[in-house]
Amino acid sequence: MTGNSVEVENLVKRFGSFTAVDHISFSTRQGEVFGFLGPNGSGKSTTIRILCALLHPTEGRAIVAGLNVVEAPEAVRRQIGYMSQKFSLYNDLTVIENLRFYAGMYGVTGTLQRERIDWALEMSGLRGRENTITGSLSGGWKQRLALGSAVLHRPPIIFLDEPTSGVDPMSRRLFWELIQQMSGEGVTVFVTTHYMDEAEYCNRLALMFRGKLVALGTPTELKLTAMRGQLYLLEAEPLGNALELAHRVLGVLDAAVFGNAIHLVLANDEASAGVRAALEQARVAVTRLEPIRPSLEDAFVSLTTGPAATPEATP
Q1: What are the Cα distances from residue 294, in Å, to 74, 94, 205, 224, 315?
Q2: Residue 30: which of 187, 166, 147 has the closest Cα?
């Protein structure tokens, strides 16, 4: 497989009068780590189910590994791997029994099965724990075992649906090292996540909101283009009073608490003087007020609130 691994064109999915996916178009490249982001209910899971040939689209076209998901669903499923946030493992089976089961499901038999299971054990770090009951493993171990199970048949494309949900930070980091390794070997990794630090590891990101594609680009591109004003960092005491007052100042488009500070989106740089004056007049101590570069989380919030969330992006 060369070129685009996934091609989506004007994809629509309706459930009765409700439109879950609304005319979205994008493509992914071979070996790309493609992040698919969006709040709950934005249409991400529905889109993935269509791409995995588990759900028919209402309109539009989806091509996965060169195959039409409607015309050749069984062939599509043989070309992909899928891992959900629940890991899809059988907890009452041992590690080796889970691997053998999934190898059989994917049609991996004989010598090839032994080779691929050996690889999965090495990759997951579970060598020597083959007879451990899967349900007794920690979340991080289950995560790597689930990934190994999903790629036993060496699919060119793997879909990971919030695979690190509920997993500790160290396990998440190790998991992403495995993802980058697979990408380097030419596997397209299509991943959904709610962790913005993880999204930074992706080559490109697509952001869904209310069924529409509202942004598509690299993490850097999204951070530079998503903000609809100037981003400022405000450190003040008391913080709650500062937030309440900032919302009332002319030129403040948005204000939200980030850690022990406030991120302000201002219509222009001049509005910062109005913020400072309003806070000082109310005897709120301002220790820091300065422009900053937006984070991916800032971009995410900006794109899913206000005017930026309404038009569909042009891929």
Answers
A1: 43, 46, 16, 7, 22
A2: 187
Map out the domains of the chain as residue ranges.
4-223, 228-293
Q: Which residue has the tokens 């090839």?
A: 112
CATH of the domain spanning 228-293: 3.30.70.980
Residue 301: closest CA among 98, 36, 37, 44: 37
- The answer to whether 170 and 164 are in contact (CB under 8 A) is no
Domains 4-223 and 228-293 share a fold: no
Q: Which of 132, 10, 150 is nearest to 86 (CA)?
A: 150
Asked if 43 contacts 110 with a C-beta cutoff of 8 angstroms, the reply is: no
Q: Tell me if 140 sits within 8 A of 168, measured CB to CB.
A: yes
Look up the CATH architecture of domain 4-223.
Answer: 3-Layer(aba) Sandwich (3.40)
What pTM was estimated for this model as a whole?
Answer: 0.84
d(CA 103, CA 150): 9
pLDDT tens over the chain, length 315 residues:
457 899 999 999 999 999 999 999 999 999 999 999 998 889 999 999 999 999 999 999 999 999 999 999 999 999 999 988 676 899 999 999 999 999 998 999 999 999 999 999 988 888 999 999 999 998 888 888 999 999 999 999 999 988 887 778 888 888 899 899 999 999 999 999 888 888 999 999 999 999 999 999 999 999 888 778 899 999 999 999 999 999 999 999 999 998 899 999 999 989 999 999 999 999 999 999 999 999 898 888 888 875 444 444 433
User: Would you give the distance in Å from CA 85 to the centre of its chain?
Assistant: 12
